Amino acid sequence: MIVVGVDTGGTFTDVTAAEPGTGRLWITKVPSTPSDPSSAFLAGVERAMSLAGVGGNDVGLIAHGTTVATNAIIENKGARSALITTEGFRYVLDLGRHDIPRNENLYRWKKPERPITPDLIFEVRERIEHDGTVSVPLDEDSVQEAVEKIRRSDVRAVAVCTLHSYANPAHERRIAEILAEEMPGMLISLSCDVLPAFREYERMMLTAMNSSVMPLMSGYIRRIRDGMRQRGIGAPFVIMKSNGGVSGSETIAAQPVYTAMSGLAAGVLGACMVGRASGHRDLISLDIGGTSTDVAICPDAVPTLTAEIEINSFPMKAPSVDVKTIGAGGGSIAAILANGSIVVGPESAGADPGPVCYGRGGIQPTVTDAQVALGRLPNELAGGQLKLRPDLARMAIQRQLADRLSLSVEQAANGVIEILNFNIAGAIRAVSIERGYDPTQYVLMAFGGAGPLHGIRLAEILDMRTVLFPRYPGVLSALGLLGTPLRQDYVRTCFQMGPDYDAIALGSAFADIEETANRWFDTENMARDMRKIERLVDVRYPHQGYELQVPIDQGRLIDTELMRGVERAFHDLHKRLYGFAMEGSAIQVVNVRVAAIGMLPPLEMPPLSAGSAAAIPHVTRSVYIDDAIGFVECPAYRRDTLGVGATITGPAVVDQLDSTVFLRPGWYARVDAFGNLVAARSEHGDGR
Amino acid sequence: MVASLSKGSARQHHELPEAIFREILKGTFAATVREMSLLIERTAMSPIIREKQDYAVGLFDAAGRMVLAQFLMQGPGMIDPVLKRFPVSEMRPGDVYCYNDPYLSDGAVGHVPDLAFCLPLFEAGQVRGFVALFGHFWDVGGIAAGGMSPHATEVFHEGVMIPPVQLVREGVYVRDLYDLLMRNTRFPRFLDGDVKACIGACQLGVKRVEEMFGQYGVDRVLAGFGHLIEQSRTSARALLEGMVGVGQWQGIDLVDGDGFSSQPFRVELKLSRRDGRIVFDLRGCSDQARGPINFILHPGILTTVLLGRILQAYDETLVLNEGVSAVVDEMLLRSGSLLSPKFPAGVALRALSRNSVTNSILKALSSADPSRLPAPSANYGVVTFRSHDSSSGRMVYCFDGLGVGMGARPWADGIDSVYLIGQKNNPVEWMETEYPLKVLRYAIAPDSGGAGKMRGGVGIVRDIGVVCDDIVLCTMVINAVQPANGVAGGRAGRVGHIVLNPGLPDERPLPTMADNIPLKNGDIVRVVTAGGGGWGDPLERDPAAVAWDVRKGYVGIDAARTAYGVVLDASGRTIDTAATHELRAAMRETLQPA
């Protein structure tokens, strides 16, 4: 029996397969098929089956990281969808929070078109108050009128978001019943299901996004399920969500918006898995790809979550792995602007023509060209399929950067890399220092095509002591899919002002969402003993606009003593995050939350058996270290020759099929039992 | 955010070429300012700072020059009042300076509710720069909660005035001063929470910049400050010179009134470029107002904020800082006028005149080159509701900011229904939970955007119901008389208005600049805000864009015909191309001057 992980990327779809119990692992790639990613998905599953030599019956689970929702939301290309709302509030989405984003110029900025436009938004007469009382009963005739208009609108999904539905969902549920009767088969999203939390714009936006992604996701899942059936695969099919857990495809089909960060989350989960196996549990994951870089912090090998994500300046109040993305990576173009500033990204050379050094017609120098000009990459990539042209890279840097800045080619190339490095270091600071974590106590896990080139230097900038280069830096997302627990998050607004909390109200709010969570566990066929429920409360000082999450003990009765503990934890957290606490002040509960986690058997990472413990370079390369040291003749190792215990001392480079590790002077690295290269600072410069 | 970087081993950046290092520094400064902003948004208590986000943060050099900031409508000049009063030699680490006096700060803070905090940056015992922040505070006393009232005819009516003082001395709050401040607010919990949040954010900024001093060396960081200012100086001047040729250009914009006089107030800008000098002459403005619409125009705010934002539209890399001030060689004001009022004239609602200054700049630049400039925008509106329950002692103060339409641009329609930059509305579900109010409608105002080849942004409609007794309304809604004008053939946006109990027997219009309007349980106040000016000939607007506006409800089917000459079927879906062509031809004919 095998489990299969499939991660859809822009160019390739990465596939992993593992045989639980034996530690066997297969890794492969198939070209992505952006017009219908299910083709690449199924091709990848077939490839995995043939590598493992198994048939459809032997596939026990397929886990998937998808970009279907991500791309539809980022490109605003969801399906045509309608929305039903309370009379008087047709324009809530258009109005938004009536703000121009702070970093934008008010004369240049254009308000982006919403996922559902007002021509497809219909009002019904009803009104529920903030305490849940019905002040205007639902006028079903007005719902019928809306239904008639929707019928004529040629939409593929309908969202419903009425005022204060988080406090009483009765009207939304009734509207859904009418829709289901009148328009059988119509895909329906209710805001009381998608995000039962106050603030109408944020709730309506997430519901609208969900609705417009729903038709795409259900069709996609259907095509995959059909394809699985044709191949005799009856295994459960789960999809990675933004929150770093998976859910069955039925759940995802109803709430696809919760997969907007699916691919990103899978990468972070992969880093956590590798870190746990390797015995490194406090991690910062660093994924440097062609056009972007993603960083996340994972204390005790668990990603932190946030509900403060924005896409296209739209709020996305869905719990998501707290990944900070910057729009620059290996393929980013370096340019000098009219005012003399040097920028690296967000323009990118993409796959075609690619960097100048690919010799395919690229003319603007990229970060990769800078690396090539400094001798850090081998002369050919991908096992000889791509011959690099350092001469072209150097010429482009010379003409477009160095000459105009009166610098040498090396200084300019090194400068481009340093600008990107400091930009990435800023992102790492944002997820660590700004969240109250000290990066010097963390291990940097550097992966993605370009991560291993930058990892050591970033650790130097941030004073980090250990850098881990995973054995398969290019497929960490697909690895992360194997053995990720099921997870679904539930939230319910429940205002409670301290110190006299209504323990019964809090308890029943928890009981309510836990019941929903258990129903979900049932639909996922999760065994009772594998279910775990974590309780959290969102708390703040009264009148603050942001809440902090404080975990509370699941097994305990909610009483005064428990809430005193919540208060203490909140004051401490506030002090740690913001530098001050207001100990004399009461605190206020805003939401209760539960994370429902269904444990799956963890994946064992296979130990490394190949290679030699003696590290022997295959060649030497002249590598530019930095402006102080200049070029040094460095040993170049082949990653696949390095066995467990092999130790190399910087400066050195380690080449593998899809990536190169650059080990700077002052560092040494040793291969661990799982084939990861773990780098640390040399005490005396000799690496021991 | 408290963890910090220890000072590391020898670092490679010491060797980096200056051009590279500057970019790294710039990124680090920007990250610091962003981090400070996040802290204040997450910890502030009054809705005006945390939801509406009416605050600004910035880094300044030791001479008080703004280097980099995340700011709204003020920021330049914030350190000067402190430097004038406190010699740097007496400053100590941990000191916090505070003020809100618009007159002593020459308009660096615009009105009394804006409290400024300045913290010196130290290296080797010397002041090397400042971190500063201002926030619009919920209430610091004054004539009525919030201090913002058309009746606030003296600056004293806006709240307790604080000259530059030392609020925190070497890390310790000056207790007497703090107690005095807390006694002068109706909402001490907000004031206390917001002061802590503001100072917390500044302290974070100080920590970050002082870390940079340690990491990179103070001289290199200060050189980075200087370079950023110089870069902006060069870019900004070149941008403006590219927009105005030699000659004199004029822009006039009108403010509705001041709540006392129904006569409009005039902002008149004469912009001249002669003999290599660029002069902004604003002496032709109206005399100062009795009502609080006076605007103490700080030269740095004219250049870096109001003009700088416009210049930045043509070069998004332009960093708005002290360097931009070099864009103008001289600014001429007349003492006793609207833009240079005499103490203690009220300035609480100076934003109204400020918007006209911006519009006068746009108009003057447009007259130099109508093809490139956006049309004027309407100014945001505010209504507040106040009540005082004498039995419980509970005071209610709801501040509701209302978006408007921005001017159309040659490159795009005007932005619909927004309230300046980065300032957010009150969510209906929050407002109803917090106040005895009930929002019955929140929508865009159809047909309010000025017609044009590019349409002006639309304003909003908000119907707010009262669900308690004994509450009063204060209205501060502008562009209810004077519209945001169109340019290059575009039409003006529609003006706003306020009406009580629309559609009911006791319907009546309400004044748009007034206070203490009594309301009773069940009353509904409808506020309609103004649209932005249009750009270019409406008859040249793409009929498909007009049809889309009709389907969205932004433009009525009648206005499509009368303002744009576009003929649509009743659903707005189908354009009658032949009829449109004919109608537009006929309209062009009648519009042609004989």
Structure in a nutshell:
The complex is a heterodimer of chains A (688) and B (594). By secondary structure, chain A is an alpha+beta fold. Helices cover 31% and strands 27% of the residues of chain A.
Strand order of the largest sheet of chain B: 2-1-5-4-3-6-7
* Beta strands of chain A, count: 36
Measured by DSSP, the beta-strand proportion of chain B falls in: 15-25%
Runs of chain A in which pLDDT lies below 50 for 5 or more consecutive residues are none
Q: What's the alpha carbon Rg of chain A, rounded to whole Å? A: 26 Å
- Largest sheet entry of chain A: 8 strands, mixed
Amino-to-carboxy terminus distance of chain A: 43 Å
What does the radius of gyration of chain B come to?
Answer: 25 Å
Report the biggest beta sheet of chain B as strand number plus sense, adding barrel if it closes: 7 strands, antiparallel
The class by helix and strand makeup of chain A works out as alpha+beta
Q: In words, what does this structure look like?
A:
The complex is a heterodimer of chains A (688) and B (594). Chain A has 688 residues and is of the alpha+beta class. Among the domains of chain A are: 2-72 and 219-263, 2-Layer Sandwich (Nucleotidyltransferase, domain 5), CATH 3.30.420.40; 78-210; 346-371 and 379-419, no CATH class; 486-598, no CATH class. Helix content of chain A is 31%, strand content 27%. In chain A, the strands form ten sheets. Chain A has an eight-stranded mixed β-sheet, with helices on both faces. In chain A, strand 33 (652-656) and strand 34 (659-663) form a beta hairpin. In chain A, helix 10 (367-373) crosses helix 11 (390-405). The longest helix of chain A is centred in the first third of the chain and has 31 residues, at 200-230. The radius of gyration of chain A is 26 Å and the shape is globular. The relative contact order of chain A is 0.10. The model of chain A has no long low-confidence stretch (mean pLDDT 92). Chain B has three domains: 13-234, no CATH class; 374-536, no CATH class; 542-594, no CATH class. Chain B is an alpha+beta fold and 594 residues long. The relative contact order of chain B is 0.10. Chain B is globular and about 75 Å long. In chain B, the strands form four sheets. Chain B has a seven-stranded antiparallel β-sheet with strand order 2-1-5-4-3-6-7. Chain B has twelve helices and 20 strands. In chain B, helix 7 links the parallel strand 10 and strand 11 (330-332). Residues 1-10 of chain B have low confidence and may be disordered. At the A-B interface, helix 3, helix 7, helix 12, helix 13 and helix 16 of A face helix 1, helix 5, helix 6, helix 7 and helix 9 of B.
